[in-house]
Design a protein that fits this description.
75% of the residues lie in helices and 3% in strands. By secondary structure, it is mainly α. The chain is globular, with a radius of gyration of 15 Å.
């Protein structure tokens, strides 16, 4: 079942704010929260992430009906990519390797910002590229 494209974009906006706060504060706890949010989105789809829940319960009812939909697999893959970057960043902060925490968090922030501001999902594009490379035409 296809999903409302506004949900993942809302999630990306919240993610960008959280990751920017991580870079400003250096808070490993805040990055741990975002890592959990990515894990839930990767495991259950963007609708199962905390930001998906907020969108579904609080934001979407205040918007008009959706007019644009997308397959759920690319955003779910993007959540998994975000999980990897957040996990690396969290490991960097936890191990005291600040440059690693900053770099991985900054990369995740850049991807989230592109999605939130321009609707360009890097993880989704990676998913589509991998599908083209691995699926043989019949």
């Amino acid at each position: 079942m296809d999903i409302d494209v506004r949900g993942p974009r809302f999630g990306a906006a919240v993610t960008a704010v959280v990751l920017a706060a991580v870079l400003v504060t250096g808070s490993a706890w805040l990055l741990a929260w975002q890592t959990l949010a990515f894990a839930l989105g990767a495991a259950g789809g963007v609708g199962r992430s905390p930001y998906g829940w907020v969108f579904r319960r609080l934001v979407r009812p205040r918007l008009g009906p959706p007019t644009d939909f997308e397959a759920p697999e690319p955003p779910r893959f993007a959540q998994a990519v975000g999980l990897v970057f957040a996990g690396v960043g969290l490991a960097g902060y936890a191990a005291g390797v600040e440059w690693l925490g900053l770099t991985a968090t900054g990369a995740a922030l850049a991807a989230a910002f592109l999605n939130a501001a321009f609707g360009y999902c890097l993880g989704c594009e990676m998913y589509l590229l991998l599908r083209r490379l691995t699926v043989r035409p019949e």
